[in-house]
Amino acid sequence: MNKKYLMVIAKYPDWRQEFFEKYMSPRNKEYSKLHDFEYLEYTDNLEWWRGNPTWLKFKIVDDLIEENFLKDGDIITHIDADMCIAKLDEPLVTKKSFSYSIDSGNTHCMGFYSLKINTWSRELIKLILDEERFNNLKDLKSTHDYFGHYNSFWEEFREQASWYSLAGIKRHSQKSFFKLPNNGWHSEVDEWTKYSIEELNKHVEILPTSWNVTEMKGESSCNFLINKTFYNNVRIRHFAGAQPWRSEWFDTNNATFHLKHLNPLRYLNPFPLNFINPRRRKLIKKKIKKLAHIS
């Protein structure tokens, strides 16, 4: 009988680990029990791969396949440790071989993905991790269309950059990928592009932004709020980057939650402060209030 797994990797050196253990972990377990997932939580004895933890979200799956823990027909769904499952009613399982969402910041985001184990997905994992591809592309520099800086996309986004390369996706678009031909697949093709449009359409399912909401009005800087989703439709709230992690998303049935998100004054928050951890942000706000009172 085929099995379903929900996997998360969490090993932070600061306040985020405590937040994860208090909020994310119980919610993930609740969700797994509700939808018959076996829950795989990795928090101990973790060694970064290629010097960064984000590669592990595919490396661990590759190891589980090699160990025959994952078998053909099984489904494994990964979510980042900085994600809150806001809606519990639908299971995160792919209808094809591979599913993910284009997030509100307009990236083909690997923070959440779902994989059905079969011949195609086994090869996908190998290609994402392939050492030859990595060595040939890790130092390749390109210009970011918005920021204008010239650096390595692979160094910045690692496993996500690997998927971009395989599917021929341009590094950044100020126009929604949903509005580009083929959702942005083959928007930048080179000799390293592996998959044809036909193969991508056959094996890959792109879910709506509600499954991976990164940028959110009143809660993040919104430099890239390109794919907007109404707060009440959010399925996964992804606290990507340095924005604060908000416990209110774990109780979306609370009236206070709705009042906060319907209050237009919340959009006047000093967004730059959102890139500071919550404890330090409170201290800065206190100092600002004190200075304002003195003046």
Structure description:
This protein is an alpha/beta fold. The protein has a single domain (4-294), classed as Alpha-Beta Complex (Spore Coat Polysaccharide Biosynthesis Protein SpsA, Chain A), CATH 3.90.550.10. 33% of the residues lie in helices and 16% in strands. The strands form 3 sheets. Strands 2-1-3-6-5-9 form a 6-stranded mixed β-sheet, with helices on both faces. A two-stranded antiparallel sheet has the order 4-10. Strands 7-8 form a two-stranded antiparallel sheet. Helix 2 crosses helix 3.
Question: Which structural traits does this protein have?
Answer:
alpha/beta; 295 residues; Spore Coat Polysaccharide Biosynthesis Protein SpsA, Chain A; 6-stranded mixed sheet
**Total E-strand runs:** 10
The tally of domains stands at 1
What is the terminal-to-terminal distance? Answer: 70 Å
What's the helical proportion of residues? Answer: 25-40%
Q: Any idea of the CATH class?
A: Alpha Beta
Which blocks of ≥5 consecutive residues have pLDDT under 50? Answer: 272-279, 291-295
- Give me the secondary-structure category: alpha/beta
Number of helices: 8
Average pLDDT reading: 90
Quick summary:
The chain is an alpha/beta fold and about 300 residues long.
Give the helix/strand layout.
Layout: E1 4-9, H1 15-34, E2 38-42, H2 56-66, E3 75-79, E4 83-85, E5 98-102, E6 108-116, H3 119-129, H4 131-137, E7 141-143, E8 150-152, H5 153-167, H6 197-203, E9 204-207, E10 236-238, H7 255-262, H8 278-294
Parallel strand pairs: 1-2, 1-3, 5-9
Antiparallel strand pairs: 3-6, 4-10, 5-6, 7-8
